[in-house]
Design a protein that fits this description.
globular; seven-stranded mixed β-sheet; 8 helices; alpha/beta; Rossmann fold; MacB-like_ATP-bd; binds adenosine-5'-triphosphate; nucleotide-binding
Length: 277
């Protein structure tokens, strides 16, 4: 049985003005359970792609379907609802609310989604526990290290059990140890069935976290490489569940399993099969 795709773009183009398009006719399918990395230099269209998938922006032409919803057809309220229900996002600079405690930050998406208080608190406690940051529940984000803050952001992103986790340079502001920790977290999440789209400049992060990497140049997909990086190598493409795991995920803390190759060029990723488009 084949999984329904989690993300489908068909000839998606985004123009902001009269210049060349920020995204140029991108056709892309991402299976449920897959971890896809999107690489590209600054200005290549990565954020534009992310914004279209999250329904934060609409394509000028083409279609964008995520978890069975045509997000390009949603209005503002519909797209906000869709994000609350189906998308979790983490960012380079965490985007936590500094005047809320860790626990209250994690509870925000549940409150917006109208989850019952008891259920929300149980879910938050589970997530903070599995992410190893429960002792910081009452602290304010500024007291935490970068790696701990990113864990809080991950907990917040997972609160509503999103079908899709979007990670925008999630290790970009972290030292190498915390970055390895967050990379392991993404691997563990993906191993539990979470579909992840990871936007990064970092070839090594892409290689060690994802099963597949696409590269954007001037808004077009110029490479699409499957490789032996991410969790459960290959398993996610055929047999992962079509929605997010329903319980709080369990994470290994030792950061050991990441299969980090040196710093290969994209076509040199281990086990890669490359389709140049
Ligand atoms: N709101 C906007 N209005 C006009 N042009 C935009 C807008 N957003 C992005 N662009 C242009 O679209 C192109 C792609 O930008 P985008 O932000 O998607 O690239 P990126 O790969 O995410 O870059 P970075 O890695 O620096 O974040 C760039 O030429 C950028 O200047």
């Amino acid at each position: 049985m084949t999984n329904a795709p989690m993300i489908e773009l068909a000839e998606a183009t985004k123009r902001y003005d009269d210049g060349p398009p920020a995204l140029a006719g991108v056709t892309l399918t991402v299976a449920a359970g897959e971890c896809l990395a999107v690489l590209g230099h600054s200005g290549s269209g990565k954020s534009t792609l992310l914004n279209l998938i999250a329904g934060l922006d609409r394509p000028s032409s083409g279609t964008v379907t995520v978890d069975g919803t045509r997000v390009d057809q949603l209005g503002e309220a519909g797209s906000a609802r869709f994000r609350r229900a189906s998308i979790g996002m983490i960012f380079q600079f965490f985007n936590l609310l500094d005047d809320l405690t860790v626990l209250d930050n994690v509870l925000v998406p549940a409150q917006l989604a109208g989850m019952g208080k008891g259920e929300a608190r149980r879910r938050a406690a589970d997530l903070l526990g599995s992410l190893g940051i429960d002792r910081h529940a009452k602290a304010y984000p500024q007291r935490l290290s970068g790696g701990e803050r990113q864990r809080v952001a991950v907990a917040r992103a997972l609160m509503n059990r999103p079908a899709l986790l979007l990670a925008d340079e999630p290790t970009g502001a972290l030292d190498s140890r915390s970055a390895a920790d967050v990379r392991q977290l993404l691997l563990d999440l993906n191993a539990e069935g979470q579909t992840i789209l990871l936007v990064t400049h970092d070839v090594e992060l892409a290689a060690s976290t994802a099963h597949r990497t696409i590269e954007l140049v001037d808004g077009a997909v110029v490479r699409d490489v499957e490789h032996s990086g991410g969790a459960g190598d290959g398993a996610a493409r055929g047999s992962a569940p079509s929605s997010a795991p329903s319980s709080a995920p369990s994470f290994s803390r030792d950061g050991g399993a990441a299969n980090a190759p040196g710093l290969p060029g994209l076509s040199g990723l281990p086990g890669s099969t490359e389709a140049v488009r």
